[in-house]
Amino acid sequence: MFFMKDKITFSKQFKMFFEHHGKAVSLSCFCVFTAAVIGVGAVHAVKKANAEREILKALNESAGTGTVVVDIKGAVKNEGVYELPRGSRLSDAAEAAGGFTDDADRERLNLAAPLEDGEGITVPSVSAQEDSANGKININTASKAELASLPGIGEVTAQRIVEYRDEKGLFTSLEQLKNIKGLGDKTFRELENLITLE
Question: Which CATH number is associated with domain 125-198?
């Protein structure tokens, strides 16, 4: 009986408390809930920002590291394939190849040009320029456009000559042009007096 009386008294007291302070309790609960939601959102935003920072950091680090491999030939002392740090310039490739020969035509080069991985570089020579001025084209240094200007060549065969040169190295004799698909004896006879090796 005493227990029941206490229970009833407690219920009445709770009811009276809620009637007097109900709005304040509701407002407190709402504030606690809102704070919790904001807290969870803030934690999520911080984690996302940290993840994005880590990704950007990794990208920046990878962009600044690594190497490039280039093939340099022509008027350098040691033609060949060289591995250089990413961000290297044409001048670095020439230095790796032992420097320029005395005949190198540096005026035609941009020594500050950045290197790309897999790039092929042909350093022109002054003598080749002189031959070109005399009407002869140096098949070891000529561009695709210069080769295509020769009679019986055209763009397709010019591209084949450039690819052959890149794969096999510089021509050591004019007759090697006959190894190019689509360039036979007849075309070679037309070219023979218009081309040179040096």
Answer: 1.10.150.320
Element (H, E) at 142: none
pTM beyond 0.70: the answer is: no
Nearest to 124 by CA among 112, 138, 136: 138
Where do the domains of the chain lie? 1-65, 66-119, 125-198
The single-letter DSSP state of residue 89 is B
The count of other CB atoms within 10 Å of the CB of residue 22 is 11
Residue 6's CB is within 10 A of a number of other CB atoms, namely 10
Task: Note the pLDDT tens digit of each residue in 63-100.
Answer: 556 999 999 988 899 989 999 999 999 999 999 999 99
The total of other beta-carbon atoms located within 10 Å of residue 161's CB is 22
